TrEMBL record:
Substrate binds at H128. Gene3D superfamilies: NADP-dependent oxidoreductase domain (3.20.20.100). InterPro entries: AKR, AKR4A/B, Aldo/ket_reductase_CS, NAD(P)_OxRdtase_dom_sf, NADP_OxRdtase_dom. The record marks K95 as: Lowers pKa of active site Tyr. Belongs to the aldo/keto reductase family. It comes from Zea mays. The active site is at Y65 (proton donor). GO terms for biological process: response to iron ion starvation; siderophore biosynthetic process. GO terms for molecular function: 3''-deamino-3''-oxonicotianamine reductase activity. Keywords: Oxidoreductase. This is NAD(P)-linked oxidoreductase superfamily protein. It comes from the Eukaryota. Residues 32-297 form the NADP-dependent oxidoreductase domain.
């Protein structure tokens, strides 16, 4: 039986690509995440170069991560030494942070990202979080009293301008619930191509995936292996069900999780500094889960790790309803 994802994918390289948007623009099924806490430039550089050597072509960064400059330098090195034929082979995602989520700051923020990346365009530019904070350098945790009402219409118009100028081949969002997507679709002239959200077998996002599929919005998973730093608990890697399936199939827990995401029709960005893990994470395309495996995964208890509370200082009072800027699908 072919996977649901396979019917909407064309293979151009070792890593399959989803066709995204009405024009069917290709987006690799697996990419490398570069969020790192603490940030160590040489680790990120090595990870990017190793990933590119292994066949990765999607590198995910953001203004918040402080990794754009080293990502750009590593990609330029990869092209200059022939590891990658040209910039055209690469797929680069970056994001505008809450402190720049103001209509007049979106385009300057993207231009700053492009300067750091040493590139003329990004393939995908995302609103990182559905929240606006008083203008400042990207940072977190952020003060609750600095949250301000977000001009979603104005911010999205600025995102559309980034697209029209050719500085972002595709535009989209991250951490948007169905409610936030409905608000956006009501005012958008260009619909978001992508919604990047927390997604893995322990946070399955069934309602959101169904909504996005219906609206033609591609879903990309972050924290596909349970995330880092947010909590000492990693529900994916510590899942008895995923471990049981992995042992029976001769696969790692990570591979079972990534394969499950792929079979939902979603792409993913996964972070690793280890070559063997990077290689393992893309060895998920020549096999599939069984119906029994999928049923068992469907029974896993759900736990969301990333919420707005992770971004905010515990003290202080916001004039904006915190629930309105959270990303828990209800």
């Amino acid at each position: 039986m072919s996977s649901p994802a396979a019917r909407s994918i064309t293979c151009y390289s070792k890593i399959p690509e989803f066709l995204v948007g009405t024009n069917g623009q290709p987006m690799p099924a697996v990419g490398l995440g570069t969020a790192s806490h603490p940030f160590v430039a040489e680790d990120v550089r090595t990870s990017v170069l190793t990933a590119l050597e292994l066949g990765y072509r999607h590198i995910d960064t953001a203004g918040l991560y402080a990794s754009e400059r080293v990502v750009g330098e590593a990609m330029a090195e990869a092209v200059s030494c022939g590891l990658v034929a040209s910039r055209d082979e690469l797929f680069v995602t970056s994001k505008v942070w809450c402190t720049q989520c103001h209509p007049e700051l979106v385009l300057p923020s993207l231009k700053e990202s492009l300067k750091n990346l040493q590139m003329e365009y990004v393939d995908l530019y995302l609103i990182h979080w559905p929240m606006a904070v008083k203008p400042s350098k990207p940072h977190f945790p952020m003060k609750r009293e600095d949250i301000v009402p977000m001009d979603l219409s104005g911010v999205w118009q600025a995102m559309e301008e980034c697209h029209r100028l050719g500085l972002a081949k595709m535009i989209g969002v991250s951490n948007f619930t169905t409610k936030k997507l409905q608000e956006l679709l009501a005012i958008a002239k260009i619909s978001p191509f992508v919604n990047q959200v927390e997604l893995n077998p322990t946070w399955q996002q069934k309602k959101l995936i169904e909504f996005c599929n219906d609206k033609g919005i591609h879903v990309t998973a972050y924290s596909p292996l349970g995330g880092q730093r947010i909590s000492k608990l990693n529900p994916v890697r510590q899942s008895d069900i995923l471990e049981e399936i992995g042992k029976a199939r001769g696969k790692s827990v990570a591979q079972i999780s990534l394969r499950w995401i792929y079979e939902q029709g979603a792409s993913m960005v996964a972070k690793s500094l280890k070559r063997e893990r990077l290689k393992e994470n893309i060895e998920i395309f020549d096999w599939e889960l069984s119906d029994e495996d999928r049923f068992k995964i469907g029974q896993i208890a759900q736990r969301k790790l990333v919420t707005v509370q992770n971004l905010l200082c515990p003290e202080g009072i916001s004039s904006v309803d915190i629930l309105d800027v959270d990303v828990i699908e209800i």
